[in-house]
Amino acid sequence: MTDKIFLEGLEFYAYHGALSAENEIGQIFIVDVEMKVDLQKAGHSDRVEDTVHYGEVYEDIQAIMLDQPVNLLEHLAERIANRINSHYNRVMETKVRITKKNPPIPGYYNGVGVEIVRVKS
């Protein structure tokens, strides 16, 4: 099954990071989420009840990203994947990618981050 719903390029200004400067100054985080979902029923019915409402998924991601600061992107990604997989029955697998656009490390880059994939148990 290759059907997917995705939310791409969600930007949040938050205060996550292992360095105290990150917790004080904050920075932009970009979140991309991809969910494997069987979309055939929704494709035939044209009913939102037969799919995953990405507006609700966005609200879940936003709540996690703007919650209390954490040290690791890995922890944020795990929280997002767990929330989606446990809350949306139609989701079979969730991929979460979180990018820090401007982390406090020297060099030139477009961002650094993590990507995890969690299969619903």
UniProtKB/TrEMBL annotation:
Keywords: Folate biosynthesis, Lyase. It comes from the Bacteria. It catalyses: 7,8-dihydroneopterin = 7,8-dihydromonapterin; 7,8-dihydroneopterin = 6-hydroxymethyl-7,8-dihydropterin + glycolaldehyde. The keyword Lyase applies. GO terms for molecular function: dihydroneopterin aldolase activity. Pfam families: FolB. Pathway: Cofactor biosynthesis; tetrahydrofolate biosynthesis; 2-amino-4-hydroxy-6-hydroxymethyl-7,8-dihydropteridine diphosphate from 7,8-dihydroneopterin triphosphate: step 3/4. GO terms for cellular component: cytoplasm. InterPro entries: Dihydroneopterin_aldolase, FolB_dom, GTP-CH-I_C/QueF. Its EC number is 4.1.2.25. GO terms for biological process: folic acid biosynthetic process; tetrahydrofolate biosynthetic process. SUPFAM superfamilies: Tetrahydrobiopterin biosynthesis enzymes-like. Belongs to the DHNA family. Homooctamer. Four molecules assemble into a ring, and two rings come together to give a cylinder with a hole of at least 13 a diameter. Catalyzes the conversion of 7,8-dihydroneopterin to 6-hydroxymethyl-7,8-dihydropterin. Can also catalyze the epimerization of carbon 2' of dihydroneopterin to dihydromonapterin. This is 7,8-dihydroneopterin aldolase. It comes from Staphylococcus felis.
